[in-house]
Amino acid sequence: MLYAGVEHIYSYDTAHTDAESQKESLKTYVQAGLLSYIRFYHTYLWKDGADFHYEQDNSYQHFLVNYGASTSWALEMDVDEYPFMPSDLQPSFVRRYLLKLEEVRPTVSQVLLQCMIFAGKPQGDPEQDWVIERYQRRKHQTEGKVPGSSRQKPIFRPSMSSGRVVSFKPHIFSMKQGETSVAPADEVRMNHYWGARVTNFGPDTVEILNVLEVDNSIQPIATRLRKHSLRNSWPNYRMVR
What we know:
The chain has a domain at 73-231. Helices cover 22% and strands 21% of the residues. It has helices at 27-31, 52-66, 93-104, 131-134, 206-210, 219-231; strands spanning 9-13, 35-39, 74-75, 81-84, 108-119, 137-139, 152-156, 179-182, 189-195, 212-214. The strands form 3 sheets. Strands 3, 4, 5, 7, 8 and 9 form a 6-stranded mixed β-sheet that branches. Helix 1 links the parallel strand 1 and strand 2. The relative contact order is 0.20.
């Protein structure tokens, strides 16, 4: 996300127990001022009969109320989702995309990214390779070409949103101003590392092999990030608000 041009990350951890919490593993990012950690299960009391939709709804609401006013653009992503531009692999590609969008289409207040599902049995070294390296096979086509359909994730202007989440809509925000559009997948998309869940964490099947093709287009980014990680440095990839 920092490489993409994001200035700050708001991580909502819905761990129900301390053993599930990601707080310790994210501590370095918090100390560097790059991430705000919110242990969200303890923020909203769990309702009897509720499922993860309840926490997800309220995490969006919490962000809009507490951080929306200070954010020009926000990307709503899960931990297994990454924004990606096939034609721009350089640092801050999302920042450049949004600056251009503001110039040529100033009425757009929300961009929906189509989902490209990466799946199949993971490959490579599970101890050394990153998720984006272990899953480099994806479905032939993207999902979510129609606005408001599932398999989309938004980049939106919080100041132009309705300011409240009225129902479970992780794939689109209700906007009170501006235009919502679906971005062409060859321009910008969301890589969703669905992984081995489609085969229930088992071996590849004939069915899954028939719908997958090799896509290692993100590897140059992974290689660059690995070099920075090995140097234990923080590259200047953050977006200016």
